[in-house]
Amino acid sequence: MGSDVGWRPQRHGGETPMRTIGILGAGQAGSTLARAAIAAGYDVVIANSRGPQTLAGLVEELGPRALAATAAEAAAAADFAVLAFPYSPGDRLPVEELAGKVVIDNNNYMLWRDGNVPEVDSGEKSIHQLRQEQLPASKIVKAFTHVQFHARSEIRVPSDALPAVIRLARPAGAADRKALVVSSDFPDAVELVTRFYDDLGFDAVDNSPLLEAWRSEPGTPMWRHHVDGQSREELIRNLQLAQRSGHQGLR
Ligand SMILES: NC(=O)c1ccc[n+]([C@@H]2O[C@H](COP(=O)([O-])OP(=O)(O)OC[C@H]3O[C@@H](n4cnc5c(N)ncnc54)[C@H](OP(=O)(O)O)[C@@H]3O)[C@@H](O)[C@H]2O)c1
Fold it and tell me: Are the CB atoms for 102 and 81 separated by under 8 Å?
């Protein structure tokens, strides 16, 4: 991780309470984020939709800082949580266990995968506001939506053998450090994610509130840099270049 600059991500703040992350979703995004967070010194309780018995191989690979659990157990154990699976109006979520907690939503609205969501297509709401409505007592924060979590073919694109969230990590102040966006209606959630990004090797750009999150939806100028990343200045400029198109999800 950041090995070309001899640096490992690290969790700041010593024994602060925000050390256990409940990650709901153990696919490409959830498992890679778990790997990056553990390397930075966080503990992870990870869940999928089928149950912890299906995650034995993953937690063995992640090591002693990882536990597999049900979604409700992961939510209950979490100091803060990540939802790493697509939004669906019928999602059954551990609403009570996530109440009062910061919940990172890394979902991208993808028409080809999710179908049409009329409120998002019309610009009335962002997909993350709909997630907020599903979890009314939680603090939803959009983050990690525009950084690549999957490794691409080593043969086709040799430089992409590592996911961008690991490959692009750099220490604070590095000339080539990249930035990621964060949007929320809750300033303490923005603060938490800013610290988390920093621990993982990225600067943060605040694009709050959630209603503004369309500026970082799939297809926008900033989102196109999910593989190569962008500096803080480039990210701010790219957010400003975003144009509303009626629907933001990629077809
Ligand atoms: N892949 C990327 O590079 C990337 C980058 C940025 C953002 N994202 C976003 O990240 C999210 C996940 O993408 P992905 O590529 O990781 O998808 P994925 O590989 O299909 O993984 C989805 C995971 O979510 C789990 N899941 C589904 N519903 C759940 C529920 N209600 N509770 C707990 N776990 C649940 C699935 O479990 P089961 O397998 O047991 O059903 C699976 O482990 C998407 O919203 C995507 O837009 C992905």
Answer: yes
Give the neighbor-by-neighbor strand order of the sheet with 43-47. 66-68, 43-47, 20-24, 80-83, 102-105, 139-143, 179-184, 203-206
Per the confidence metrics, is the pTM higher than 0.90?
A: yes
Ligand 1: centre distance to CA 25 (Å): 5
Residues with CB under 6 A from ligand 1: 24-30, 47-50, 71, 84-86, 91, 106-108, 145, 148-150
The ligand 1 atom nearest the CA atom of 26: 43
Spatial contact of 93 and 232, defined as CB atoms under 8 Å apart: no
- Sorted by where each starts, the structural domains of the chain and their CATH numbers stand as 11-241 (3.40.50.720)
Using CA atoms, how far apart are residues 239 and 4, in angstroms rounded to an integer? Answer: 29
pLDDT, tens digit, 9 for 90 and up, residues 156-199 = 666 667 899 999 999 999 999 999 999 999 999 999 999 999 99
pLDDT in tens, 33-70: 999 999 999 999 999 999 999 999 999 999 999 999 99
Measured in angstroms, how far is the CA atom of residue 159 from the centroid of ligand 1? 24
Cα–Cα dist 25/80, whole Å: 14
CA of 68 to the centre of ligand 1 (A): 16
Alpha-carbon torsion (47, 52, 57, 61), positive or negative: positive
Determine contact, residues 74/52, Cβ cutoff 8 Å. no
